[in-house]
Amino acid sequence: MPETLYLIDTFSLVFQVYHAIAPMTGPQGEPTNATFGFTRDLQNLIRDKKPDYLICAMESTEPAERKKLYPEYKAHRKEMPEDLRPQIPMILEVIEGFNIPVIHSAGWEADDVIATLTHRAVEQGLHVNIVTTDKDARQLLAPEVKLYNIRKNQLMDEAGLMEAWGIHPHQAIDFQALVGDASDNVPGVPLVGPKKAQTLLQEIGTLDEILAHPEKARGKKLQENLRTFVDQALISRKLVTLQTDLPLKFDPQQARLSAPNRSRLSELYQQFGFRRFAEELNNTNENSTPSKLPVEPQWETVDTEKKFATFLKKLQEQTSFCLDLETTSLQANEADIVGWAICWEPAVAWYIPVDAPPGQPKLDPLMVVEALRPLLEDPAVLIDNQNIKYDMIVLRRAGIYLEGVHLDPMVGDYLLDAGARSHSLETLAQKYLQHKMIPISELIGKKGERQKKMFEVDVEKAAEYAAEDADIAFRLSHIIEEKLKKESLWELYNELERPLISVLVEMESNGILIDQEILQQQSTEINIRLEQLVEEIYKIAGHEFNIASPKQLRVVLFEELELPVQKKTKTGPSTDVEVLEKLAKMHPLPEKIMEHRQLAKLKGTYLDALPKLINPETGRVHCSFNQVVAATGRLSSSNPNLQNIPIRTTEGRNIRKAFIPAQPDWKLICADYSQVELRILAHLSGDKELCAAFERGDDIHTLVASQVFGVTPEEVDSQMRRVAKAVNFGVIYGQSAYGLSATLGIP
């Protein structure tokens, strides 16, 4: 099998991690978030993909050749953020520490370096995976060349390009020349988006043939643009064409992946404050091999009462174990138990089926529940499992209240690496044990109508899958507990995150009651208003069209009404809310479109959707509170997102009226920290006025609003306070002037 070269578009990856990871600082106060993210991705790439060769491609510091051809090229690009600039030398030091060559070419971009190296590598019989999200690189796709999206862990090949753009790689340059690229300020041809470009290339031919025969295009305006913007299209083609013949020397042996300079990396990790990376480096011996799971683990199916009695006697001798449930549903509040997987020593696990296909052995569900209840409700027996919150909710449905919650690897890994893309069992098994787990799709098939339920899976296969889950979670629990203690994070886990799991179980199990009649009434009222808006919009436009179609809306706004284009996207002129707000000052139609969008979203997302999420058994909505999603440490909620119920508009506030107490004489109480971020700011800054305001018991948002609007605190209304609150938190979290103006609707 041919060896593989990975080519990293360095700045593409740097900007991805910079925007994905919250600000971080090192021991000297220097910014480190991009350096941390790049280092983590580089380590993961080397560990998971095991490239034979690896190169980092960089931009040139010389004036870009494309600028000479087209001065407006990338003219609208903002300067590199101030807190990213000092991290570039740090990232280069990390790359050097891994002994990875960095290649650039005077006057050319990293994409051109990658294009040239790709051609040289293929000529020498290598396969190439290009680590980038830049669409320009799609022209390089070939049987030996793929694009790797490190964020999504996805490879794009020629078939993927056909699925995405409907073209072959040799058509990619002409495709981009027609469409343009808003991010690089490549103009393209107005009115030509991806779909039109695909049609033109399929029906007429190459860019030269399209420009030579514009009359073959559909639509007079498109034909006119193809005649008018010939030079613009040809310049665009030159701008998007990557150079494959730069004067670069490519010696595969210089790029062959070798052992890193561990002493240098250790110095850098200490300097940047990357304690976990330093610890992992120190614990890894150069000659060590990844720990492997036993070749033949011992999975035992407990499918008779005699076997269960033997198993139960052994289990009762344990003071801790890992429990994993197989169930009928991903929704914990609707799930019934199909099987129990239990493990208390590595590579040994037991599976107890209580539901199975007809004719296959299983035990009585109630008998198993009653036998295991004393152990599971004993706080002295410590229970581990991945995403244990789910199992606790399912157990509640079976009448068991789990008491001895101990280690959830998912939550523990979140504390160790909050910025990681995933904390799933599969990810953690690969990360800590270098083990690939059995995918669930092997048991139940891929998503769709033919996907099986877990109780339809053969007991033997279910046992293998469930026992592996329990075994891996058991191993991970011990590994992660040790890491938490070494990182001085055990107290945080044990005293905050672990007890929080039980609180979230209580919240999710209780759910919240919704008055369906209120939602139905509001839906009817909004539907009447939507119908009125549709008539008003058609009247202003002069004809009917699909209001929800950005493509048709573009035609109405920018061709028929001839309103000025505010900004472009990959598919054509933008019609987002920011654009519509600007256009609303010039014409009445955009205002109607915005109102229609807002009401349609309220109706579809909340008024009509919430009743469908009501659990038929409880009559309540049971959302999931996610403990390990937000890198900032905040909780998030989903299915539905109860943290995002609208409040800024009257219609949005009315939706909140549908959430009601479970008893007539009960009240719903809304509680929040009292301006906790501002209190921390006052403490850290020592600002006398801010500290004095808190000591007096003043409301800071009201105080700022009175100063901003020039009124007394008593005259501040809710809207004024909301503006002041946005200003205060915008300052704390480093929001830009543009971002704050957009939030407040200030031109």
Automatic annotation (TrEMBL):
Record domain 3'-5' exonuclease: where: 299-485
UniProt protein name: DNA-directed DNA polymerase
Domain DNA-directed DNA polymerase family A palm, chain residue ranges per copy: 652-747
Entry similarity comment: Belongs to the DNA polymerase type-A family.
Organism this protein belongs to: hydrothermal vent metagenome
Keywords: DNA damage, DNA repair, DNA replication, DNA-binding, DNA-directed DNA polymerase, Exonuclease, Hydrolase, Nuclease, Nucleotidyltransferase, Transferase
EC nos: 2.7.7.7
UniProt key word Hydrolase: yes
Record Pfam families: 5_3_exonuc, 5_3_exonuc_N, DNA_pol_A, DNA_pol_A_exo1
Catalytic activity as recorded in UniProt: DNA(n) + a 2'-deoxyribonucleoside 5'-triphosphate = DNA(n+1) + diphosphate
InterPro entries in alphabetical order: 3'-5'_exonuclease_dom, 5-3_exonucl_a-hlix_arch_N, 5-3_exonuclease, 5-3_exonuclease_C_sf, DNA-dir_DNA_pol_A_CS, DNA-dir_DNA_pol_A_palm_dom, DNA/RNA_pol_sf, DNA_polI_H3TH
MF GO annotations: 3'-5' exonuclease activity; 5'-3' exonuclease activity; DNA binding; DNA-directed DNA polymerase activity
GO biological process: DNA-templated DNA replication; double-strand break repair
